[in-house]
Amino acid sequence: xxxxxxxxNVEHFRGPRANWIGLSDNQKDAEQAARVARVVQTLNAINPxxxxxxxVEGDNSPYEVAAAMxxxxxxxxxxxxxxxILVGFRSGLRLFFTQKGDFKENNLYLRPAPVISVxxxxxxxxxxxxxxxxxxxxxxxxxxxxxxxxxxxxxKKSLDGYAVLNGEPSAAFVAMGDLNTMGLELKDSTDDIDxxxxxxxxxxxxxxxxxxxxxxxxxxxxxxxxxxxxxxxxLDHVYLDESLAILPEGGHEVRVGGWAELAAGPARDQxxxxxxxxxxxxxxxxxx
Length: 288
Description:
288 residues; Deoxyribonuclease I, Chain A; 7-stranded mixed beta sheet
């Protein structure tokens, strides 16, 4: 059994708000519908079995996506946060959905982390967590993000315990999404932690839970395009249990699509304007 799994932060997914100034309500609706159609077209071209769209806002987008993708069933996180996570899965898959509120870090306005438990042909249960971790390199953002990664490791430890009871060496577990590894910046200090060091630390922490970060096809997953104020960055990641096997695509374990596959310049800038500053990431598990 193979499963293609995708995560994509479609930033402020209810339409290109920056272009709404002076538009009528009907024109705004048309802009939103056009963006949803572009996103759905991209998802259909990639053809994932399970996917998550991050930063879903408003009441209409989830229903528009569901209506345009009749071969999938959908689940949506809920709470006081303005941004939700929409999970789609191919009809016929048997799964269980849990909303992990502890990843909100007692902050009503942070996103919970949905966990999807999938029944596989082998009888082994596959658990997938889609995360949208706290951004910002300031001490508050870094601390919340570090705590979220600690919770990720704790969850894996608990799942491993259940797996051992079932005669398995470890849990079949995947965590992926916009994990916002931006590093730590301190005022009046030379002790900053850059993004690469932060990511290396999390690699070590999760490595102790038998998880690895597979190689992506492109180094960066976030770009503001030409003239952007924030540099191109590696913010979106996949971590998975070392026992899981990936079917490479194009010679890479994890594919980064969208603007990452375009040369810097007008074409990339247009893609970012049409879709998002985050590129979709996906991979295929095999032998399940």
